[in-house]
UniProtKB/TrEMBL annotation:
Every Glycosyltransferase 2-like domain range: 7-112
Name of the protein: Glycosyl transferase family 2
Record's keyword terms, sorted: Transferase
InterPro entries: Glyco_trans_2-like, Glycosyltransf_2, Nucleotide-diphossugar_trans
GO molecular function, one term: transferase activity
Length: 290
């Protein structure tokens, strides 16, 4: 059994997928598997994946005829994993050499209390050029208490850490990624209520920003998560607010910790975004927004 699974959910990813695949294939850790879940792509994704699987026994290519949405695909690579450690790999991101080894070393050093590990991150553009170093030297996600970790998550808004290496036992104790906008923040809130993150003080992850990403497409974010979803009645911000509270309330932590963490949800997330709830109502009523 492999120790670490890289899960690559992809839909029409021919442009960046070869580099993303190569970056995990070249990790200095032999005991890995790479699960690629193709959500009904109609570009060259299939050919790229079949060629990679034929050349590398660690690559397992799963193709599905229908696009069931990004959330389903992200969950599917977790369901297909056979290892005790897991790492999502977006089809347009790059994990630098040493990513896997250093994250595993950080988890080993921290002991079982740490549920996941992530290195420092840089943002790259469509051409692969680094244009920003994220301010992630001291995120505070390794704080000793749940409410401190949740508070620091909302202050930093460091959603990129979900692409680190997570213990599968911890991931499966959560509800996983939900088919909704902001699913990454909900999942991280659940994880951080249960335990800390171990940090790797090296820039070993390149997260790509480009105009074709779903996160750049407004209300189409809803369709990315669930293609059959009704954008008008999705209430994305409202649902996100509620699920963040629920993430705290279902956590196996004392009620005093839950109360403090919920207070951070209110003051650091829900309060500053109150206009989003109003926008949800306007959308449902069919009122155009300027």
């Amino acid at each position: 059994m492999p120790r670490l699974t890289f899960g690559i959910p992809v839909y029409n990813g021919e442009k960046y997928l070869p580099e993303a695949l190569r970056s995990v294939q070249e990790q200095d850790l032999e005991d890995i598997e790479i699960v690629v879940s193709d959500n009904g792509s109609d570009d060259a994704t299939q050919e790229i994946c079949e060629e990679a699987a034929a050349a590398d026994r660690r690559v397992r290519y799963l193709r599905y005829g229908t696009n069931r949405g990004g959330a389903w695909n992200y969950c599917n690579v977790v369901d297909q994993a056979r290892s005790s450690l897991f790492s999502w790999q977006a089809a347009d991101d790059v994990k630098l050499p040493g990513f896997a080894r250093r994250c595993l070393e950080a988890l080993d050093d921290a002991g079982l209390r740490a549920l996941f590990a992530c290195p420092r991150t840089q943002l790259i553009g469509a051409d692969g050029t680094v244009f920003e170093d994220l301010d992630d030297v001291s995120l505070g996600l390794g704080a000793p208490t749940a409410h401190e970790r949740v508070h620091n998550l909302f202050v930093s808004q460091a959603s990129h850490v979900m692409y680190g290496v997570v213990r599968m036992s911890a991931l499966r104790a959560t509800r996983g990624l939900l088919p909704m906008v902001g699913d990454d923040m909900v999942l991280l809130t659940e994880l951080l209520c249960r335990g800390p993150m171990a940090s790797v003080d090296e820039q070993l992850f390149h997260q790509r920003r480009h105009s074709e990403q779903f996160s750049q497409q407004g209300e189409n974010q809803v369709k990315w998560h669930a293609p059959d979803g009704n954008v008008r009645f999705a209430f994305p911000q409202t649902r996100l607010d509620l699920e963040l509270y629920r993430a705290v309330l279902i956590a196996p932590i004392p009620w005093t910790e839950k109360a403090r963490a919920c207070r951070s949800v209110t003051t650091r997330w829900v309060g500053p975004r109150w206009r989003g709830v109003g926008s949800d109502v306007q959308t449902a009523m069919g009122v155009s927004r300027r």
